[in-house]
Amino acid sequence: MTDPRGAGVTVLGLGAMGSALATTLLDAGHAVTVWNRTPARAADLSARGAEAASTIGAAVAAHPLIVACLLDHASVHETLDPVVAGMRGSTLVNLTTTTPNAARELATWAAGHGVRYLDGAIMATPPMIGTPEASILYSGSRDVFDDARPVLDRWATSTYDGADAGLASLFDLAMLSGMYTMFAGFLHGAAMVGSVGVTATEFAERATPFISAMTAGFAHYAHVIDGGDYAAPGQQSLEFTELSHSHIVRASEEQGVNPAPIAAVRELISKQIAEGHGAEGSARLYESLRADHTDHTQTSQETLR
Ligand code: FVH
Fold this sequence. Notes:
Bound molecules: ligand FVH
CATH topology of the largest domain: Rossmann fold
Number of domains: 2
């Protein structure tokens, strides 16, 4: 008979994120077994009704659905290698941040032990879990995604990216690349105006609407990249963009500010111009960054264990 409270779930890892995942399941009425390397971290969840497993072996045996939210790829192996024989027939949803190849390695490792595997990448902070703003990307077994959906949807909007277990991680890290580069640009800008005494708070207020509006440029660049015509009319040329970057670098230096983030981009632009593409659109910078067409799904997985 189906448990009216919903599927039982084991949650491994009770850091900020693992605790948020377990709490959301408890609040939704699921039977939850938790385990953490440092047992004291399970106290709050026990008080809310979770079963705290005293050993990792007991934790993975408690429910057929096991969720891992540990620090990194190495900690997943450190935790599960000793008990994987007892996990045969279970399902592992791994929400630990890893690289794409590390996710693929875990999928292969799990399959070798008869464990169904789904990799996940959380696009949210712990307080967002269980709210409509949270998003979690998944890749790996479609069957696992479909079967676990009633649990997964408790946490966030769930998106399935494909059978290649590395895809969720790839999307996650690609988006984080955009985010961190943007933050570095913000910090550089704050340092520029900070050189004349403007506070970072004032700069944030001034910069947020402008930078938010500029994200509309993503679609324009994407259209050019996917069309492959960097010479089509209506684009800002690399030469113009280089001039703009040179102004920012020089202004930074004049103000005694380190121009490193913008100087790195300028260098890529200069390389494209040196190769004869100065009159073409600035989206051509993509050509300095993209991978060649070799298969990047297999490389270096062997070095991960
Ligand atoms: N917190 C966030 O905003 C981000 C959002 C995006 C996704 N990340 C990823 O989620 C994973 C867990 O993150 P977290 O925030 O829960 O991290 P911590 O609070 O630092 O907790 C880490 C847990 O991992 C356990 N742990 C660490 N090393 C080991 C090990 N060798 N063996 C077993 N467990 C280990 C640690 O246990 P303890 O230190 O309490 O004993 C915590 O339970 C992470 O991949 C983020 O990138 C969160």
